[in-house]
User: Which sequence fits this backbone?
């Protein structure tokens, strides 16, 4: 939740999506830790999900 909050606040301040180092500076946490947290909570995708314009494979 802290990462999400910092992301929103930085977006409002900077006017663009903040990079991991900017979030880590605000939260006083290493960039590696921020990256690991973001990867751990990344939404899962189905293997049956189509790829490309025709959505076949």
Assistant:
């Amino acid at each position: 939740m802290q990462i999400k909050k910092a992301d929103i606040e930085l977006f409002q301040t900077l006017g663009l999506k903040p990079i991991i180092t900017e979030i880590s500076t605000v939260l006083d946490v290493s960039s590696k830790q921020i990256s690991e947290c973001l990867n751990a909570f990344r939404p899962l995708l189905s293997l049956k999900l189509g790829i490309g314009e025709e959505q076949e494979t």
User: Anything to note?
Assistant: The helical segments are 2-14, 20-27, 31-40. Residues 2-40 form one domain. Residues 2-14 form the longest helix (13 residues).
